[in-house]
Write a structure and sequence with these properties.
The chain is mainly alpha-helical.
């Protein structure tokens, strides 16, 4: 997810509210799927749950970064740039990358069981977030995550074509992809009018809200 770059306190407050809603829904999806995983021990559900845990943490650190900027502007504070801005955004990149990798493995685990998957995922996420930190550029992060997401979409289509079965998880995957793509427009560079970004944020919240409702009914 790309970093935040607005300077208007009102717009920052709107972004803060949007981020809080997404964090809440991600953690609720993680919580709601606990019971069904405890009953089934299904690996796909395990990594699907972890996806939303990591994604919620990514947005949580984004929330911290936005909140720090808002506090600086509102109360004329001089907070540490590394501690309150750069570090949360690097952690945002790390956890959002972990979310994509977890989603990918939740799709392929039956066909390709990888030992020490969490260790490998951590290494990849640390590498990508490290590049973001030293380059001070979100473009590389966006490109890396886009490649991972495209790879995941291709895998999802491939396994669907093999099974020809639309499962509940498959529907949730599709909704998650829609959410992620819309979210890139909602949080991306501000070349569009703010009102358009508001529309994308509303769509983004609606999509993740549908995911939550489906998970709640499913459990």
């Amino acid at each position: 997810m790309p970093p935040f770059n607005l300077t208007d306190p009102t717009l920052l407050a709107v972004e803060l509210g949007y981020t809080m809603i997404v964090v809440f829904l991600c953690f609720m999806i993680y919580y709601k799927t606990r019971e069904i995983y405890d009953l089934t021990k299904y690996e796909g559900i395990k990594y699907f749950r972890i996806t939303f845990l990591f994604f919620g943490l990514a947005f949580l650190f984004r929330f911290m970064s936005i909140f720090a900027i808002l506090m600086e502007m509102t109360f004329d504070l001089d907070l540490s740039m590394y501690l309150f801005r750069i570090l949360p955004l690097v952690l945002n990149g790390y956890f959002s990358t972990m979310a994509i990798l977890s989603l990918t493995y939740s799709i392929i685990w039956k066909e390709l069981q990888i030992k020490h998957m969490l260790i490998i995922s951590n290494a990849i996420a640390l590498l990508i977030s490290g590049v973001e930190f030293f380059s001070r550029s979100s473009v590389l992060l966006i490109l890396a995550q886009t490649v991972l997401l495209i790879f995941t979409i291709i895998l999802t289509i491939y396994f669907y074509n093999r099974s020809r079965k639309i499962s509940q998880l498959f529907i949730l995957y599709v909704l998650f992809f829609v959410f992620w793509i819309v979210n890139l427009f909602a949080l991306g560079p501000r070349f569009l009018p703010f009102e358009v970004h508001i529309v994308f944020q509303i769509i983004s919240i609606a999509v993740i809200g549908i995911i939550y409702l489906k998970v709640a009914r499913w459990t």
